[in-house]
Amino acid sequence: DGGITQSPKYLFRKEGQNVTLSCEQNLNHDAMYWYRQDPGQGLRLIYYSQIVNDFQKGDIAEGYSVSREKKESFPLTVTSAQKNPTAFYLCASTFGRYYGYTFGSGTRLTVV
Amino acid sequence: AQTVTQSQPEMSVQEAETVTLSCTYDTSESDYYLFWYKQPPSRQMILVIRQEAYKQQNATENRFSVNFQKAAKSFSLKISDSQLGDAAMYFCAYEEGAGKSTFGDGTTLTVKP
């Protein structure tokens, strides 16, 4: 079945460490997105990509980086510059406007 | 930037009854899309229903329907014949260009047996 796979499900980061969250889709969607969800809040856009080898910053891109070398993959790196990275991270993709998002199951990142 | 407001942090409904979740948004655009997503305790976000702004007819998906009031910038979700499986957090979202969506803070729905 087609879908989006996020891994790992849980991730622990030490202070000063970079970590990478994986997002893979087999839906043949062009556009992919990364959102951050904090407790009691909605989703906030970190980065998005509408096509391979191109991506744009969202509302809260500071301390994060992405790449889009393949259509199927859109990994997110949380760098040491991100001072408060503990959150739930959701990856999404879509065919385009109107269709809405298909989401992955999320990664819970905790700083230890 | 567009804003989406869900004024009800929590709602509850009796099983088999009907409940309406509110959402308002702010935009100067005339062509846009609106969505409701469901996030159950598993945290897997699922698309519930969508609405195109230029369509006056309200969208319906089985027990879920919307009341779209473009002039008032209101987009409420009605759940009929509520079931225990409807218990979740519901997010309203406004889609702007490039497929980017702005989400409200969510409404937690409890379904009482």
Explain this structure.
The complex is a heterodimer of chains A (112) and B (113). With 112 residues, chain A is mainly β. Chain A has strands at 4-7, 10-13, 19-25, 31-37, 43-51, 54-57, 64-66, 76-78, 87-94, 102-103, 107-111. In chain A, strands 2, 4, 5, 6, 9, 10 and 11 form a seven-stranded mixed sheet that branches. Chain A has a four-stranded antiparallel sheet with strand order 1-3-8-7, with no helix packed on it. In chain A, a hairpin with a 2-residue loop joins β5 (43-51) and β6. Chain A starts with a strand and ends with a strand. The model of chain A has no long low-confidence stretch (mean pLDDT 94). Chain B is globular, with a radius of gyration of 13 Å. Chain B is built from no helices and twelve strands. In chain B, strands 2, 5, 6, 10, 11 and 12 form a six-stranded mixed sheet that branches. Chain B has a four-stranded antiparallel sheet with strand order 3-9-8-7, with no helix packed on it. A two-stranded antiparallel sheet of chain B has the order 1-4. Chain B has strands spanning 3-5, 10-14, 19-21, 24-26, 33-39, 46-52, 60-61, 64-69, 74-79, 88-95, 101-103, 107-112. By secondary structure, chain B is mostly beta strands. In chain B, 0% of the residues lie in helices and 52% in strands. In chain B, β8 (64-69) and β9 (74-79) form a beta hairpin. The interface between A and B is medium-sized, with 28 and 25 residues.
Q: Let me know the average pLDDT of chain A.
A: 94
Low-confidence stretches of chain A: none
Distance between the termini of chain A: 36 Å
Helical proportion of chain A, percent range? under 10%
Give a brief outline of the structure.
The complex is a heterodimer of chains A (about 110) and B (about 110). Chain A is mainly beta and about 110 residues long.
